[in-house]
């Protein structure tokens, strides 16, 4: 063990990552919380996170993907850096910097033991500054959803255009004109039809099913104007 | 000195901040580079930056403001977090995470010894990953300039609307319709007239001078649609 150049007498610097993993279920944006097994805050529900492992991680994003793999069983979902949160008081273990990420996934069939998906608008008080990290992520996701492909990552594939439209409306919290929405989707050019697959919705004729083109699974696509303009 | 929890045998974790300080001069967006006094890369031109001081700094933003004060003589300019850059290879001293910020100031009268302001589009190769940090900052600033008050911080006060219009056009690299620009400025509501002060520009009648309202010196204001839409 060697000393960190940032450390000073009696204090230490720690570097962690935290991940705001979001999904959509029952018309609500939800965040994954895990029951903490260790101190500090053992037993509390908190964001998946952990120390950067400098012998193993190639960067903080790599650490975030490792945390999702190890703690949530997820392999390479859509992930984006959110912001860093830092200071002497946010973690009782020392002066800490946490590089926070957000990730989006279709809602899983069921939560594993020690996991729960809570609506982002009705969270209890969270340990550390996780409440503030979640609020920042939700604001970022809602704002980016207005002019990007971001919400497709919440939609289980394959999906119809109507299903994707409903996901955008839920995120933006307002109705989106259908014609304008289809035009923006064309502009985004992120979808491909699943050949031969259609789904019957209500009394309508069967609707074409789509999935996200492979090159846009990890890469965001933007439109010039907001989806609802 | 205590060990950092992130440290492993023979390795250490370091945490720094770097600041991309931008200004506009001779029609070009420029970044401040300082001649490095110490290793690594002593003598090279690099971004102002430094270690987080955990006994002193209240967070990484606080560290960035300290760096600007100590290394560039600047007191609280407009500053925003850009992103974190991390990994085992970006700094020869160890596995490092640098929380990067960008700041905007009116171009100073002259550069101090050991400083230079270089056009962002014609930079030499920079040490660490500073080239990539600058590129990320420039992209962010140009993109945010389309729908926010960000560029006002590049304009020496007091200024005329024509001068501010020219700053926006230089940043966006395209002409902006004057009528639409004035309407967006009204929507932003960030300016106040400097009472009794006017400036004569060319053959025109004297133009009113403005400054940024105090509450928007540190806070960004957004418009719903891009300035040029």
From TrEMBL, chains A, B:
SUPFAM superfamilies: Nudix, Winged helix' DNA-binding domain
Residue stretches making up the Nudix hydrolase domain: 12-141
Annotated keywords: Hydrolase
Its EC number(s): 3.6.1.55
GO molecular function list: 8-oxo-7,8-dihydrodeoxyguanosine triphosphate pyrophosphatase activity
Pfam families in UniProt: NUDIX, WHD_NrtR
PANTHER family xref list: ADP-RIBOSE PYROPHOSPHATASE, SLR1690 PROTEIN
This protein's name: 8-oxo-dGTP diphosphatase
Organism: Inhella inkyongensis
